[in-house]
Each structure stands twice: as C-alpha cells, then as structure tokens.
Structure prediction request, 276 residues.
Amino acid sequence: PKVHGIIVYYPIFGQVESFSGTSQDDYLRDSISHKCDVEGLCHTYRTNLYKDVRFLDYPTNSQKCVMPCTALSVVKILENCPGCYDKSRSIGRHCEGKVVTVINRSEIVGRPLAAMLANDGADVYSVDINSIYLFRGGRLNKVDNETVESLVRKSNIVVTGVPTKSYILPTEWIQPNTTVVNVASFKNVDEEALLKIEGVTYVPMVGKVTVAMLERNLMRLYYNFHHPDRRLKLEEGGRNKRGEVVVAATPWYGSPMQVYTAVLTTAILATLLSKK
Prediction:
C-alpha cells in the first residue's frame, strides 16, 4: 500500500513464451495492479483504451483511466501543434477529419497511439513491417489497397517510431503543412530536407514529454487510489433513495480478512514461542 507507482523497463524476457501462451513480458505487464501501473499498459487500462472507456468507475466517473505514457505524450504534443486538434468540438471529435499515419504498431507505443487518435475522431493508418490497418470509430480494418507512400502523401499527421538507424522516411512523400513527430530513439527522417517543405511542423523527440506524462500518471494514480481522501469509499449501491452519494469510512484496521490473518498469525507465533 505504500507503493504508489510501478515502472517496468521493457524488454526483460522479450518474446520468450510463458506458461499462459503469451510472452513473459506480456504476462508481467498484466501482473501489475491497475492501482500502481504508471505506464498504463496493464490489462485493465489497455481494455478500456481499446473500448474508448475513459473512466474506471462508471457511472460516477470520478476516476479517470491512466493512458500509456509515450502514446499520451504524442497526443499532448499534437494538441499544441497548429491545426491538429480542435478543442472547440465535443470529446471524441477533437481530431475529426484528420488523416494520421503511424509507422509502428508496438504494444508500447504504436497500437495504443493509433487507438487514442482514433478515439479522438481521426482516421489512423497503422503501419507495421508486413501489414497496414485502419483504426476508425472503434473498429480495426485491414488495408490492402494502399502503400506507405500513398498513406503518407494524404496524411495531415505522420508519426514515425521505427527503432532502427537504417530506416529513413522519404521526405518527398511529406506534403506541405504536415505535422511530423519522431518517436523513435533514432531519427526516422532527414530533418534538414523535411524543414524545407512549406508549413511543416516537426517534433524530433518526445522523451521529455513522456517523463512528464509518467509524472502525470503517477499523480492520477495517487489521487484515484492512494490519497487520504480515498479512504472514503462508496457503499454498495452508492446512493440513497434521495439520489445522494453515500460514503463510509474505511476502518483503520483495513478489511476483516486482514484482522483475521493478523490474529491467526499472532496466535500461531505465540503457540510456537510458548513451546520453547
């Protein structure tokens, strides 16, 4: 209970399979409690993200979900780039009408980023080494009649996240007034040539914003689950007959099971000591 956040620096086991069939890293990722998952990658948060569920406690809606930190950093950057987000629109439509190409579909960055942008109304083409998918309106559709070039040429936003030094996105594909964000540790684009294109907005790295999003997620976890005020929790049902929220203080000793365990352990220790 004194640990407010957990970060796992992947990869640890890589794609080595676990007993459950998924990789050991996947198993480890899903073993972290959603109350401490600073990276927002556990099963609870991933499931909510892909279903566009933004709160943990519907219908009260007082506990916002934690988003994957690197993908969230890209969204926050785009919110502050000209012409990418329109906050005057309703939630779910801030990026409506935009075409986005994300060149990367990792479980850490590419896939959650595509889902987040699609949840905000964009048409998002997710490009990986051997396939292209369209994220649109909560659905995933395989794309067979497009190439990376054709997608980049019609995109308002291009996000590159290829983790190899050899990959360079051809700048001749980039259209004027496009926003380009490089997420990879290597530069996936020729910066000098890119900046010669009229109206291009280029973000060469997202690391510092990612750290800020980790801190943001940690504060959200603390408020959602660890803040002293959260010792007050809703009773079953949550509201009385007048529709008022009913709360009950969590007792100092925690749950009855904790008391039972403590008493039983003390009794066993006392018995063992008395025999000595």
Q: What stands out?
A: Helices lie at 24-31, 43-50, 69-79, 110-119, 148-153, 191-194, 207-226, 256-275.
